[in-house]
Write a structure and sequence with these properties.
Blueprint: H1 2-15, E1 18-20, E2 32-37, E3 44-50, H2 53-62, H3 70-86, H4 88-99, H5 103-127, E4 135-139, H6 147-158, E5 162-166, H7 172-185, E6 192-194, H8 199-206, E7 214-218, H9 221-234, E8 241-244, E9 249-253, H10 259-271, E10 281-287, H11 291-304, H12 323-338, E11 342-345, E12 358-361, E13 376-382, H13 387-396, E14 399-400, E15 402-406, H14 410-419, E16 424-427, E17 444-445, H15 466-470
Parallel strand pairs: 1-3, 4-5, 4-7, 5-6, 7-8, 9-10, 9-15, 10-13, 12-13, 15-16
Antiparallel strand pairs: 2-3, 11-12, 14-17
Helix pairs in contact: 1-4, 3-5, 3-7, 4-5, 5-6, 10-11
The structure holds nicotinamide-adenine-dinucleotide.
Organism: Roseibium limicola
Function: Oxidizes proline to glutamate for use as a carbon and nitrogen source.
Protein name: Bifunctional protein PutA
């Protein structure tokens, strides 16, 4: 309601400017400082003290597994879930100001974070892990700064590990608030420490130390490869890396699809959250005979999208995370424009790091060498007889995160779903989202190691299995 929003708005202003530092079991230095920036308008909203090498050493030395019965850990994580829900207003204001999230995205993100806490707490009680690995480093991305950050930590803690949590450098304010609530619920400081700072410095140090028993990572495929290499050099040979990484995700719209529905689902899949979802649609294949009419309809739906302040309820699409991200995406679009392949781009507000949703013509997924993490949709057409070739090319990308299909041919749903090598298939709907507990999420190949997050097997990699090992 308007009253509720006004209250939230007031709270947002009360909360800033903010100062955060690492939450470590020992002294924390305030030597190195960087600003926190609101991507929607460029305003500085806070001050972040990043961890020095001495802070990192203090955290590593203090880190301790959470050695209490599983039922006690579960009760504390469930209490944290309740605290998260009570803190909804603060989380929404932080998510909107620090990460540029629209209100709809904020609501979905808090829901997912709370679901992760409750699901892993209950799942741990059922599976009763008796041998935690030790200390887990959890490294998270900025695009789900609350949900993914919390999910990784909750899984490691539920299984009795100690955690060193390294949030993305763009979103430490959100992470610090989450960790404070977990501590308030009863997680000991030495079992959960927050270490803030840049990936190549702090992240690298926390993934190349023999005191760390395993790493849970979500972020780009390139960073996952770097971490795997560092772990191989410095950590135990059997130390697990649980990685959830990028994707070049495709959707096929055939000539039997319902065009209006498909155009709306394509728009949401490619442009919601400014395309900053690992699951987002990057490469659309439209059957040749419907392509001209379908693309006109799609352009019309793109024009309806409202870009602006993420805090306004009517806003569909907010900014991209920062100036560096905007430059990478803008350069990609400019190159396509210079080559005559830019079919459409929506106008953007003049302030902040916005990128107008863009439609770019390509021949096929093989033209995309890397994930462009923003509101850019590449579109190719295909002939009815070439469907198998299209699927082979999609599989040939090496990634395998999400795939979408719009068709009214039932047998095609079955055959195509069986042929694509991806973690999550979406049929006649948008390609967004997963539901913790009932729709586990995760990719194959270059997109991740498994097991799927929010699924019944996820916790298995966070503890060793003494019975199996002794067989
Ligand atoms: P990123 O790889 O740049 O950074 C992710 C994290 O890794 C950050 O905390 C960063 O500080 C840290 N990091 C960077 N270099 C490091 C190093 N050398 N050692 C240790 N840590 C290091 O990714 P990003 O830009 O924050 O996030 C976007 C990416 O995440 C996209 O590729 C997206 O597809 C992917 N993602 C995947 C999933 C999934 O579930 N599969 C979910 C969300 C995001």
């Amino acid at each position: 309601s308007r009253t509720e929003l006004a209250r939230l708005d007031q709270q947002r202003h009360l909360e800033t400017p903010l100062t955060v530092q690492s939450l470590i079991d020992g002294n924390v230095s305030t030597d190195e400082e960087i600003p926190a920036v609101n991507p929607a308008n460029g305003e500085i909203i806070g001050k972040i003290y990043t961890a020095t090498p001495a802070d990192i050493e203090t955290a590593l030395a203090a880190a301790h597994p959470w050695a209490v019965p599983v039922s006690e850990r579960a009760d504390i994580l469930l209490a944290a879930a309740d605290l998260y829900e009570e803190a909804a207003a603060t989380f929404f204001s932080l998510l909107a100001t620090e990460a540029g999230k629209t209100i709809a995205d904020c609501v979905g993100e808090l829901r997912e974070a709370v679901d992760f806490l409750r699901y892993y707490a209950r799942n741990a009680v059922v599976t009763n892990p008796i041998a935690p690995m030790g200390i887990f480093t959890c490294i998270s991305p900025w695009n789900f700064p609350l949900a993914i950050f919390t999910g990784q930590i909750a899984a490691a803690l539920a299984t009795g590990n100690g955690v060193l949590a390294k949030p993305a450098e763009q979103t430490p304010l959100i992470a610090a608030h989450a960790v404070k609530l977990l501590h308030r619920a009863g997680v000991p400081l030495n079992a959960l420490q927050l270490v803030i700072g840049a990936g190549p410095k702090v992240g690298a140090a926390l993934t190349s130390d023999p005191r760390v028993a395993g790493v849970s990572f979500t972020g780009s495929t390139a960073t996952a490869k770097r971490i795997r290499k560092a772990m191989a050099e410095h950590m135990a040979p059997d130390a697990p890396l649980i990685a959830e990484t990028g994707g070049i995700n495709a959707m096929i719209v055939d000539s039997t699809a319902l065009p209006e529905q498909a155009a709306r689902d394509v728009t949401a899949s490619a442009f919601q959250s400014a395309g900053q979802r690992c699951s987002a649609l990057r490469c659309l294949y439209v059957q040749e005979d419907i392509a001209p009419a379908f693309l006109e309809m799609l352009k019309g739906v793109m024009d309806e999208q409202l870009l602006g302040d993420p805090w306004h309820l009517e806003t569909d699409i907010g900014p991209v995370i920062d100036a560096a991200a905007k430059k990478t995406i803008d350069d990609h679009i400019a190159k396509a424009a210079a080559e005559g392949r830019l079919l459409k781009q929506v106008n953007v507000p003049s302030r902040g790091t916005f990128v107008g949703p863009a439609l770019i013509r390509i021949n096929g997924i093989e033209d995309l060498q890397q994930e462009i993490f923003g509101p850019v949709l590449h579109v190719a057409t295909y002939k009815a007889d070439d469907l198998d070739k299209v699927i082979a090319n999609i599989n040939g990308s090496g990634y395998g995160l999400t795939f979408g299909l719009h068709t009214r041919i039932t047998s095609r749903v079955e055959t195509v779903s069986a042929q694509v090598d991806v973690g999550n298939v979406y049929v006649n709907r948008n390609q967004i989202g997963a539901i913790v507990g009932s729709q586990p999420f995760g990719g194959e190949g270059l997109s991740g190691t498994g097991p799927k997050a929010g699924g019944p097997h996820y916790l298995s990699r966070f503890h060793s299995h003494p019975l199996e090992a002794s067989l």
